[in-house]
Design brief:
By secondary structure, the chain is α+β, with helices and mostly antiparallel strands. The chain folds into two domains: 1-32, no CATH class; 35-65, no CATH class. It has two helices and two strands; from the N terminus they run ααββ. Strands 1-2 form a two-stranded antiparallel sheet.
Length: 65
């Protein structure tokens, strides 16, 4: 990804579909799980219906209190 963006000319628009593909491939190849648990948050995400999520914010966010 870095190689691709470094080779762009200053005024050239990036191919965003290609960049999205690179990020998705890295995520899949890294065997990550899309579980909505972000490193910078200290909360629980609860699925209440298929594909409908709520955030249990009882534990405070460790950076924003």
């Amino acid at each position: 990804m870095l190689r691709y963006v470094r080779e762009l000319d200053f005024a050239e628009d990036p191919n965003y579909e290609h960049l999205k593909h690179l990020l998705k491939s890295a995520f899949t190849n890294g065997k990550f799980v899309y579980d909505f648990k972000f490193d910078w948050l200290d909360h629980t995400v609860i699925e209440i219906y298929p594909n409908i999520f709520i955030i249990d914010s009882s534990p405070k966010n460790k950076y924003y209190g």
